[in-house]
Amino acid sequence: GETDQRMSPRVGPLLREVARLPGDGYNPSAVSVFHQLVVRALPLMPRALVWRVARRYVAGTTLEDAVRTVRELNEKGMMATVDVLGEEVDEPERAEAFLEEYVRVYETIEAEGLDANVSVKPTMLGLVIDRDLCHRSLERLAEVAAARDNFLRIDMEDRRTTRATLEIYRSLQARFGAVGTVLQAYMRRTLRDIEELPAEGANIRLCKGIYIEPRSVAWKGYETVRLNFLRALQALLDREIYVGIATHDEFLLCGAEAEIRRRGLSRNEFEYQMLLGVEEELRDVLVGAGHRLRVYVPYGRDWYAYSSRRLRENPRIAGHVIRSFLRGS
Ligand code: FDA
After folding, report:
1. Which pTM does this prediction carry?
2. Separation CA 209–CA 159 (nearest Å)
């Protein structure tokens, strides 16, 4: 093995149980025992092993890697949004360094003539340690985006950040225009947030949501979240808000198609969005149908937290990690 292969006695039985489970196929309606075990076992895996499967979800560790990936996507008629990996930053100096990296991303997109905008996580710019610092940094990025005819997407993180993120989004949107954020269909507050959003110039990515939230704030059922996604999509479109429909769920894509058709929306009035390394066939289907599609392209050295969330969504791949760990390969 390339890394520490020892198992603590407490961990052993759990992992062996995981390895015995079939775990083939992805059946999201029934969050299986396999899934739950995989999710619990993943943090115990050596990083080198996780990287072997996680790297499909990221462009690489450098901006050059991201540029190469974006160029390939652009050649296939797809747009991109570039994300620097990192979150939960608790030192102002690191937050500042990430801010400078993001400025470099905007400069590079322009210099290389790429069809891409930028996505940023507020906790990477220090939201949790210092909201004002985060606000100022996002303001700087909104300014840079506007000056370069580009766009800033503020990603949505967990429930601690929802209110602050929406407030910062609203103030920057009003001032700079070229700013959007994200709403999560699993949040119970989302329909209300849509009602309260100033519709003028708004640009919202709608996704299911990936953080682990308590039932007091989030819908938990798989079908419930789907239902709320479609309701939120309707509410956004009713208000004539530009939506980035961010999902790989065929059921939702089917519902979205019907909604778009019924309203007679044209190509420029919305876009689809998907994550790098996920459901490439569906991407091609949407582009082939003449839709605009944007791929989320993360890069950087802090790939672990993001990739773990992706693996959590894909217990089959995560299961491979655990099996190869047990095989010692
Ligand atoms: P679901 O998870 O049910 O997946 C539907 C199907 O897609 C699965 O059946 C499977 O085939 C495939 N699939 C999904 N994930 C996969 C994976 N990792 N590997 C392989 N196959 C996979 N969340 C958030 O909280 N804040 C945010 O800012 C964002 N931003 C964001 C941007 C973009 C462009 C996308 C596409 C998604 C996000 N998300 C997000 C993540 C989002 O909340 C959600 O977790 C994922 O999109 C997965 O949900 P789906 O709607 O795809 O459904």
Report:
1. 0.90
2. 10
